[in-house]
Design brief:
This is Fanconi anemia core complex-associated protein 24 isoform X2. The chain is α/β, with parallel strands linked by helices and about 190 residues long. The protein folds into 2 domains: about 100 residues, Rossmann fold (3-Layer(aba) Sandwich), CATH 3.40.50.10130; about 70 residues, 5' to 3' exonuclease, C-terminal subdomain (DNA polymerase, domain 1, Orthogonal Bundle). The chain has 9 helices and 6 strands; from the N terminus they run βββαβαβαβαααααα. The strands form 3 sheets. The protein has a two-stranded antiparallel ribbon. Strands 3-4 form a two-stranded parallel sheet. α5 packs across α6. The N terminus is likely disordered.
Length: about 190
């Protein structure tokens, strides 16, 4: 297996070296932290760090959460933050041993030849779609809902860029249609 030099991911004040994870303070000295190098985070600080990481990085992170009978009361709030608000993947585990096995399996899958797994190609296209979606949201006057409608109607940024005001109006209304048209005509 060859080792590729990768630069650390920097998200605000957080620097996560390639191959490292960010974990909760309660896991300090545990089996999982002994097997993995982790930046341990105390209490609710993980929320701020996740938001900063997501905003500063184009990478899609995976959040692993210990879900037990005791922690179950907090799970829905964490799930809402991670999945719905940040658009990251949330993987609940029962204990630290399961978490370490999951991380080991994820590392093994990432290091395999991608052409041998047909499901990884679909994952790459989903990442591209998410990137296009975020790009369309950067157009003035376009939020999540309108970006989704525009991509459903036009299918690509290229077709959206070449759309006339009359083609845009039924999808987003007259004012936003004019803003989009002006945005693309001023850029070119």
């Amino acid at each position: 297996m060859t080792t590729k030099a990768r630069s650390p991911v920097t998200a605000g004040s957080i620097v996560v070296p390639y191959g490292h994870v960010v974990g909760n303070e309660k896991w300090r000295g545990s089996e999982i932290s002994q097997r993995l190098q982790a930046d341990l985070v105390a209490g609710d600080e993980f929320k701020r760090r996740l938001v900063r990481f997501r905003n500063a990085s184009s990478l899609g992170g995976i959040v692993i959460v210990e879900r037990t009978q005791i922690s179950d009361q907090y799970f829905l709030a964490v799930q809402k933050l991670v999945v719905l608000e940040l658009g990251m993947v949330l993987l609940p585990v029962a204990n630290q041993g399961e978490a370490s096995q999951l991380i080991i399996q994820l590392v093994r899958e990432q290091s395999k030849d991608r052409s041998s797994n047909p499901f990884l190609h679909k994952q790459c296209s989903q990442l591209a779609e998410a990137s296009v979606f975020r790009t369309v949201q950067q157009i003035p006057g376009v939020g999540k809902t309108k970006a989704l409608l525009l991509l459903q109607q036009f299918g690509s940024i290229h077709r959206l860029c070449n759309a006339s005001v009359k083609e845009l109006e039924p999808v987003v209304g007259q004012t936003v249609a004019q803003q989009i048209y002006t945005f693309f005509t001023l850029c070119s």
